[in-house]
Amino acid sequence: MNQFLILAIDGGGIRGIFAAKLLELIAKHYPFLDRVNLFAGTSTGAIISACLAADMPPDHIVALYKAAGPSIFSRKFFLGPRLIEKALQSPYDMLRLKAVLRQVFGQVKLKDMPRPLIIPTTNLNDGQAHVFYSFDCDPKLPLYKAVLASCCAPTYFDPCVVDGKLLADGGMWGNNPSQLALGVAANSFKAPLSNIKIISIGTGHFNECYNENTSHWGLLNGWKIRTLTEFVSSLQSETTFQQLALLLPTENLLRLNFSQNNLIKPDEFAQMETLEKKAQLTFARCEQMIASFMHRLQPECG
User: Fold this and answer.
1) Rounded to an integer, what distance in angstroms lies between the CA atom of residue 112 and that of residue 270?
2) Nearest by Cα to 45 from 123, 137, 107, 117
3) Are 102 and 132 in contact (CB under 8 A)?
4) What is the pLDDT of residues 10-34, one digit of tens each?
5) Distances (CA, A) of 212 to 209, 222, 224, 257
6) For residues 174 and 32, what is the distance between their CA atoms, to the nearest angstrom?
7) pLDDT digits over 284-301, tens only?
8) 64 pLDDT exceeds 50?
9) I need a surface site. Which of 1, 19, 125, 193 has the fewest CB within 10 A?
10) pLDDT at position 169
11) Average pLDDT of the chain to the nearest whole number
12) Residue 222: which residues within 8 A CB-CB, separation 6 or more?
């Protein structure tokens, strides 16, 4: 059997522009996107993966983030301190996000994706993972609804109801969907593990969220709820890839991400230019590794 190529993209809010820009740079040098057998994306990664599975060029996705980011992360009206707001409501309007996704995807159905797509979400009714599969889904389900559900991150957006299920961000359990995609490739597509290759794109790893000088470990001061959420998501993403490395040959894996000390929060749309520069620096730093992976790809896919 020929190789089975997976492209998996992490969640991370506005930091998705890093992944989109990095994919734009890679695709300009190595036109590999038409060789992807399975797309997988969580939260902001679901937006990018859905766009790619629908054959939208990466540079259009970068433009989408620039155009829609400030609108999506425009705060709801709240008469009171921001600290109190976080305790009483989600600061961003899920309907704004829904409107953007409807504009992007229209009434395209999930089942009509040209290539297989998986989107992780979380079912709040039963505390279970809920995954949307383009090749095994309600034929009437609009693509935008599946993407929206994966993007409804706790403490940022309210959850949404899809097909009678109360759904929220897939990043609560699968911020890096590459291991899920590996299982789908092996079970649903019968791809041997030795033939599966994975490109996994992160949205930032942040090194100094906590330190030993903290004297009070309350939810608001020491742990800091938003920092804790991002820390857990990043930890899940990194450990997922470490587990993949135990299952697949090293040469079958390509993980691309950036690392820095200070956290860039998922709603910091003012950081988009910085994130684009991070993508350029990451491409330059990893160019030899990317080239090596892509060249190994070509003989089997060409």
Assistant:
1) 35
2) 117
3) no
4) 999 999 999 999 999 999 999 999 9
5) 11, 10, 15, 26
6) 25
7) 999 999 999 999 885 544
8) yes
9) 1
10) 96
11) 92
12) 210, 214, 215, 216
The first and second tokens of residue 84, run together, are 């109190």
Place of tokens 């995807």: 105
Contact between 76 and 92 under an 8 Å Cβ cutoff? The reply is yes
Token pair for 129 = 């993972």
Q: What is the pLDDT of residue 180?
A: 97
